[in-house]
Amino acid sequence: MSSERNPLRLGSIAPNFDAQTTQGPIKFHDFIGNSWAILFSHPADFTPVCTTELGVVARLQTKFDERNVKVIGLSANDLDSHDKWIQDINEVNNVEVKFPIIADADRKISTLYDMLDYQDLTNLDAKGIPFTVRSVFVIDPKKTIRLTLAYPASTGRNFDEILRVVDSLQLGDKNRITTPANWKNGDDVIVHPSVSNDEAAKIFPGFRTVKPYLRFATQPTDKPSA
Ligand code: BEZ
Question: Among this protein's residues, is 38 annotated catalytic?
Fold first, then answer.
């Protein structure tokens, strides 16, 4: 399936695929199961920014577990390379990588998810074939894509921000709320515009009206999935 003919948008079903990973073969949808998933690509094994990023993700493992999120990395290298690189990541960052990394040396999955780098001419393998950019897909248990990000090879991502979006999405799925700029888990939320004032009085007692279209409430106790 060509990604040009079928762009992956918010609301698209994440394409299913078979893959070899550092934790054995997977079928992506079975791997997700009833969890949320974060599929993220990084340009290549044994590269500096990627080595720091995967250390950060490994350190956040408990936070992903608490939110019922399975994390899975991908780079366009083979399993042998991934296995060796994980030893470096663990050593350099003083962590233990517990999430799988997909081996995508033939770029089948990177192509399916439109992850290949078309602009950075330093982000190529020895044959001149592009590696991936730093893509992120947040996928819910129905396999729907809920967030997409694409960062250049030169810029490491902020994984706290990705967790923050997961918190907002999970909270918004369970409650009729949205979250303001720079919101973080525990801060006041915004009453969804579709909620009338009469309904809001019942659902969000004590809600605060700043403008008729801007109403704040304390964060519902129904927290993002544990
Ligand atoms: C890096 O991870 O450091 C990197 C990878 C590819 C291109 C540029 C930087």
Answer: no
